[in-house]
Design goal:
Blueprint: E1 2-3, E2 25-28, H1 35-48, E3 54-59, H2 65-78, E4 82-88, H3 91-100, E5 105-109, E6 118-124, H4 133-145, E7 159-161, H5 165-175, H6 179-185, E8 188-192, H7 202-208, E9 212-216, H8 237-245, E10 250-254, E11 261-264, E12 270-271, H9 273-287, E13 292-296, H10 301-309, E14 313-317, H11 321-331, E15 335-337, E16 343-345, E17 349-352, H12 354-368, H13 372-377, E18 383-390, H14 396-407, E19 413-415, E20 420-424, E21 427-433, E22 439-446, H15 449-472
Parallel strand pairs: 1-14, 3-4, 3-5, 4-7, 8-9, 8-10, 13-14, 13-15
Antiparallel strand pairs: 2-6, 5-6, 10-11, 11-12, 15-16, 16-17, 18-22, 19-20, 20-21, 21-22
Amino acid sequence: MREGQEPHTAAPPRAESRLFGTDGIRKVVGKEITPDFLSGIGLAVGEHLEHQGTVLVAWDFRTTSPGIARILAGSLQLSGVDVVEMGPMPTPCLQFNVRELHAQMGLMVTASHNPCEFNGIKFCGPLGLEIPPLDERQIEELFWSKRARSVPWDRAGRIRPDVDGVDRYLSSILRHVDVGAIRAWAPRVVLDCGNGTSIVTSPRLLPALGCRLTTLNANPDGSFPGHPSEPSPANLTDLARLVPTSGAALGIAHDGDTDRIAFIDEKGQYVPGEVTLALLAKEALRRHPGATIVTSVTSSTCIEDVVRECGGELFVTRSGSLAVAVGVAEQHAPFGGEENGHYYWPDHQNAPDGPMSSAMVLELLAATKRPFSELVRELPQYHLVKTRVDFPGEVRAAVMRRVEEELAPKAERLITIDGVKAYYSEGWVLVRPSGTEPICRIFSESRRIEQAQALNDRAVQLVEGLVTDLLSSPGREIRAP
């Protein structure tokens, strides 16, 4: 296993100047996302692009998304940029079209799996990948400085629609999977669209692959009446019940903007994202012996075991889709992914892609002619526990320094490219500050659930104690509990 290098970064900006999180901008509508805020973002992007070029704009089905998209489009036009309105579509569909249409940028209006009161903007560059941190900093500086300006009327850009984006995207998926094998199998599949953007792609894709399809929550609704938009086990109970009772071979669920995916096996069991990741890595190495597989620091030991057993090499990056995508490109990897349901297929596009992932899992099942649950049982078994802890921004740097000091002495191995991940004989624990919320995410894993929970409990106690100690006595040394 090789680890990516922690990228050199400048001193972090002041908290009040930070607009971008791990994946674009996400804020509460009406409180932080206002017309003035959005027009400022549009003008800042136009200034960043030097008042020229083309930007694609798409949106999800949140109730505020069309209005946000139009304010952004108008501001971009008045800054001299041409705008192509792609309409409602998944984030990976927009990313694919940015690359195919040679645009300078794509703006996806979405808050992904966040609750209904949130909305936001995902930014992607000419290759269909997230824009790099330097570009984010420049846009932030232009936004806060108010230096971005509109252009005279005769230099304004144009706004036009594009109605072929979904067809263009689906055609690529169909070119990159064995459609004949899936059609010959003709599986029954239950699809939970979650009232999100997969509605415009997956109900077309799956029948084109030969699936006999049943859908849930396939009406667009930004209030997510079916269930919250995160495809977690707690939110997919209806899907889990329907798959075995309908005799389906597979259940598929997406998040609000369709870059993530979750699966239910034929018995109605939720398949954790880290398990699907290991299974797909195993298949990628069967097709590409000796290749490198890319994953992030949050991933399970299961994928390490699988890659080693299959004779491949594992390359570990920071969390986040840009870090994994860059790793996939630099390592010439045939596949990459994260435990959160992001999977990357560079032959199609190097970005997390839920619909493409559904097609690849169907191809795998068609080729093996075995139930999903059997393939899962053959993988090394681990238990992963995840917890969130409140983590105010003003103490995170000091707390993380002390976390490393506390975890390192007894650790067999330490990874610090993104938070602190400490390996012990009984498993590992990762303490990682969130890039989008004032929380700390704590992951722990072991062969036994009791050990995984114990590792997690100790890390939670450590972090909470350090935060409390520093907030109550900021002038003295932090002491671990």
